[in-house]
Amino acid sequence: MIPDQTSGAYIVVHKVPMAGKRIELWKECTSIGRSSDCDIFLEDITVHRKQASILRTPQGYVLRDDHGSGDSFVNGQAVRERLLNSGDQLLFGNTQVTFYASEGTRPFQLVTSRGREMHLGRIPDSQPALVAHLDAVNARGISYRVELLPEMTIGRSRDCAIFLEDLAVSRLHATIRELPNGDFEIIDNRSATGTFINGRAIARSMLHEGDEVQIGATRFIFRLSPL
Predict the structure, then answer these.
(1) Closest CA to 54 of 33, 75, 37
(2) Separation CA 176–CA 90 (nearest Å)
(3) b/e code 49-65 from CB counts within 10 Å (16+ = b)
(4) How many whole angstroms separate alpha carbon 169 and alpha carbon 216?
(5) Is-contact 203 188, C-beta < 8 A?
(6) Phi/psi at 175 (5° precision)
(7) Per-residue pLDDT of the chain (227 residues; tens, 9 = 90+)
């Protein structure tokens, strides 16, 4: 029997409509692919229906390429089977995810952990730690949520953390960045069509609860919610 692990492993997806989504790896074999039968369904036409699996073994978590075409990658290297280390970057088609071996290996600077390390050894106060995210609606009326990481790029390039398939959007349109005090700002990267907050064009601006950010045909609402 595989020994129990005190903290579960998980992945974080970096491609819309799942960008920022955290998925727990609670099964001994977690299937990944474009088939709705997979445990982790990736809405990406460049991903195979049965792409890969993450296996829980006595040695740790192992990525196995199930399609056999050599296009499951770990840190840029095609693999058939690879023991995963926390922080490894996995790529399936155009979808990049980050593997974390346990909650304890998650970097403190990620927004969903902000506040935990600050309150160690202190008497808890009545103010809960907050998680920042964007509620988005694109030109087709599709809604999705993006959990904000310490720095995320937005644009038409597939290398962006938030990819917008919109000709009105520049390849590297804007950047959202967490500041040392936990606030977030958005920076327009000299885009062709501009970045707007509450209808006003900006070059750089702080983000506040409820702010509406317009980039091309996509509308984002900046939200803060308790951890």
Answers:
(1) 33
(2) 23
(3) ebbbbbbbeeeebbbbb
(4) 5
(5) yes
(6) -135, 135
(7) 444 444 478 888 887 667 777 888 888 999 999 888 899 988 888 899 999 999 999 989 999 999 877 889 998 889 999 999 988 889 998 888 889 887 544 443 333 333 333 334 444 445 555 678 888 888 777 787 788 888 889 998 888 888 888 999 999 999 999 888 889 999 999 999 999 999 999 999 999 999 999 999 999 999 987 65
Tokens 């099964």 belong to which residue?
27
Biggest CA pair distance of the chain = 59
8-state DSSP, 69 = S
Q: Are 88 and 98 in contact (CB under 8 A)?
A: yes
- The closest of 71, 72, 95 to 12, measured between CA atoms, is 95
Ordered strands of the 184-188 beta sheet: 162-163, 151-155, 174-178, 184-188, 204-206
Q: What is the DSSP string of 114-163?
A: TTTGGGTTS---SS--EEEEEEEE-TT--EEEEE--SEEEEESSTTSSEE
**CA 226 to chain CA mean position, Å:** 18
47 closest CA partner among 62, 63, 36, 58: 36
